[in-house]
From TrEMBL, chain A:
One of its GO terms (molecular function) is phospholipid transporter activity. GO terms for cellular component: ATP-binding cassette (ABC) transporter complex. The keyword Transmembrane helix applies. Pfam families: MlaE (PF02405). The lineage of its organism: Bacteria, Pseudomonadati, Pseudomonadota, Alphaproteobacteria, Rhodobacterales. It comes from Pontibaca salina. This is MlaE family lipid ABC transporter permease subunit.
From TrEMBL, chain B:
The keyword Transport applies. The keyword Nuclease does not apply. CDD domains: ABC_Org_Solvent_Resistant. Pfam families: ABC_tran (PF00005). This is ABC transporter ATP-binding protein. InterPro entries: AAA+_ATPase, ABC_transporter-like_ATP-bd, ABC_transporter-like_CS, P-loop_NTPase. One of its GO terms (molecular function) is ATP hydrolysis activity. Gene3D superfamilies: P-loop containing nucleotide triphosphate hydrolases. Keywords: ATP-binding, Nucleotide-binding, Transport. Residues 10-247 form the ABC transporter domain.
Length: 376, 261
């Protein structure tokens, strides 16, 4: 066996030399991965390679010798290398069998057509996702319908558990967020309205924007980030560990057990969270109006009751279940799409959040148009 | 440097390791000789992988000496440890490939870290290593998630031998492979061991691997190395677990196939 190199310091300082004599390329010293870079591949007319003076040889060294051999080209191979020990010969044979072919794999550079193709694929993909989401929604509704007919199959424990997860546990963050939004609106509104001496209209500003739009929209965004991602991660990791497949083989329907309780919990709890957000937003606004503008809570309350149409609140609440459905459907759908590797779990979780927030805002815009058309 | 053939390349003395109140190793001794394939067997939870992780320095032993190439792994300075790492390769269960890199980039990773090579040379050498473990050129540019379990293990092996190490640590290389794939992997280990002059530290449960390629077998039980020796010697050991392991129905089947070859 070839004496092996010791530490990397010794390897670094290993000596290798190449000389050409009588048409013979003589290598001596240690032909290692650290040293071959010091040699050039110029044969200087040599027709033979002599490695009898090579002490250590590793795979990289063997590659170097074989690369030289290839450059000699024409003559019959195998006889070009002289002085190899048995072990070296064996290593050379193994590496020869693994040498790169002439048609080296070249890295594919994207061309214009590739880019256009990528756009086309992305578009088709977006269309497919929309289609699949719709069919997923249809499946969820179908399963819900079946559950109404056979209520005994419904998982009450699971529903209550998820209502706690997505609803109860989210109250502090939602309330705090809405409170701060109320504060900001009052503060910004006050500075502008004071210029016109119309400070008291800050109540209308806060009431309409919080009740109609911001309260429910921001709650939906927080819930999408908080619960939508949790849905994808939980269902996705079950998919990854083949739990979903196991359920199917046992005759259990994952839609019934995993998806429906989650979505239903969201649909029930998002309006509640929206209501909490509305209330704490108004409280935040009221406190700030009092401090900044001297609008007392009593004035704030009376103006709120007399001047704000109850439909502003109604519009916000009508949107809540729709937002909940969007977040739940997307969260569960993306979870079901997770494949075998951990990477897809991470990717789809973030996709789920981004897509859910995007869709919530799109639907909010559609609702705005709809409500202005019907004149509410 | 102790480079004579008689000196063990890995020397473990009086190793103690516990996790909380659970003692895994208590006074474990083991010698691995240069150029041999040693198979480490033992029931689940006897600390085969823990032993491997301690030898390569991923876990700190509570007490005891571990010497690799005559150097103490535990007391080595960062430079010495870096130097040691350069001289061994580790293949984890299921390959443990970096999922964001292609197979060839995975093999290039240790070269990039340890050596300063031109890009072309590094790519060529990595390509050779990938082909040496029996993967096709197509597999080179694939990501680990696109490979089958057997291919991932091969790629992990290619990364372990990227720098022509002196010792390779293999953690259950044939687990989860079909018999044909496992046999092919055994052959591959044996071939490359002979060609590259490797010392192989093989943690395995595969009786066929033990028969086919291991020079010696070490049995871990009762918190230490219970017995070390060749397959024939193992069959003589008088200990219930060893008896059951090497005389059980699956062991007899493996022995029988060995006889037919």
């Amino acid at each position: 066996m070839t004496p092996r190199a010791t530490g990397s310091k010794q390897r670094q300082s290993a000596v290798v030399e190449a000389t050409v004599a009588n048409g013979c390329y003589v290598l001596s010293g240690d032909l290692l991965i650290e040293t071959i870079d010091r040699l050039d591949h110029d044969l200087r007319g040599a027709r033979l390679i002599d490695i009898s003076q090579v002490a250590q040889l590793d795979t990289a060294g063997a590659w170097f010798i074989l690369d030289l051999e290839r450059r000699i080209a024409d003559a019959d191979k195998g006889r070009l290398i002289r002085g190899a020990t048995d072990t070296q010969r064996q290593l050379l044979d193994t590496v020869r069998a693994s040498m790169p072919t002439e048609a080296e794999i070249t890295e594919h550079r994207p061309t214009i057509t590739d880019r256009i193709e990528a756009i086309g694929r992305a578009t088709a993909n977006a269309g497919r996702v929309a289609l699949e989401l719709t069919s997923f929604l249809g499946e969820v509704i179908a399963v819900m319908g079946r559950l109404i007919v056979q209520p005994r199959r419904f998982r009450m424990t699971s529903l209550v558990y998820h209502m706690q997860q997505v609803g109860w546990n989210a109250i502090p963050i939602v309330a705090l967020m809405a409170f701060l939004i109320g504060v900001v609106l009052a503060f910004q509104g006050a500075t502008q309205l004071r210029q016109f001496g119309a400070e008291v209209f800050v109540v209308d500003l806060i009431a309409i924007s919080v009740l109609r739009e911001l309260g429910i929209l921001l709650t939906a965004i927080i819930v999408a980030g908080r619960s939508g991602s949790a849905f994808t991660a939980a269902i996705g990791s079950m998919k990854m560990r083949e739990e979903i497949d196991a359920m199917r083989t046992l005759g259990l329907n994952p839609m019934e057990i995993l998806v429906v309780p989650r979505i239903l919990a969201l649909v029930l709890m998002l309006p509640v969270l929206g209501l909490i957000a509305d209330v704490s937003g108004l409280i935040g606004g009221a406190i700030m109006s009092w401090i900044e503008l001297g609008v007392s809570p009593a004035v704030f309350q009376s103006r709120l009751v007399s001047n704000t149409d109850v439909w502003h609140f109604g519009v916000g609440m009508i949107k809540a279940p729709f937002f909940a459905l969007i977040i739940g459907i997307i969260g569960c759908y993306e979870g079901m799409k997770v494949g075998g590797d951990a990477e897809s779990l991470g990717r789809l979780t973030s996709t789920s959040v981004v897509l859910a927030i995007f869709m919530v805002i799109v639907v909010d815009a559609i609702f705005s148009i709809f409500f202005s058309l019907v004149g509410v | 440097m102790n480079d004579t053939a008689t000196d063990p390349i890995i020397k473990v003395r009086g190793l103690v390791k516990s996790f909380g109140t659970h003692i895994v190793h208590d006074g474990l001794d083991l010698d691995v000789r240069r150029g041999e394939i040693i198979g480490i067997v033992g029931g689940s939870g006897t600390g085969k992988s823990v032993l491997l992780q301690q030898i390569v320095g991923l876990l700190k032993p509570d007490a005891g000496q571990i010497e690799v190439f005559g150097e103490n792994v535990r007391d080595s300075s960062p430079e010495e440890y870096r130097d040691l790492r350069r001289r061994w390769g580790v293949m984890f269960q299921d390959g443990a490939l970096f999922s964001s890199l292609t197979v060839r980039q995975n093999v290039e990773a240790p070269m990039r870290e340890q050596l300063d090579l031109p890009d072309d040379l590094r790519k060529t050498l990595a390509g050779i290593k990938v082909r040496m473990v029996g993967l096709t050129d197509v597999a080179q540019t694939k990501f680990p998630s696109e490979l089958s379990g057997g291919m991932r293990k091969r790629a992990g092996f290619a990364r372990a031998i990227a720098l022509d190490p002196e010792i390779v640590f293999l953690d259950e290389p044939t687990a989860g492979l079909d018999p044909i794939g496992a046999a092919a992997f055994d052959t591959l280990i044996g071939q490359l061991q002979a060609t590259l002059g490797l010392t192989v530290f093989l943690v395995t449960h595969d009786l066929d691997s033990l028969h086919a390629i291991c020079d010696r077998i070490a049995v871990l039980a009762e918190k230490k190395v219970l017995a070390v020796g060749t397959m024939a010697e193992m069959l003589e050991v008088d200990h219930p677990w060893v008896q059951e392991y090497f005389h059980g129905p699956r062991a007899r089947a493996a022995l029988a196939t060995k006889g037919e070859r």
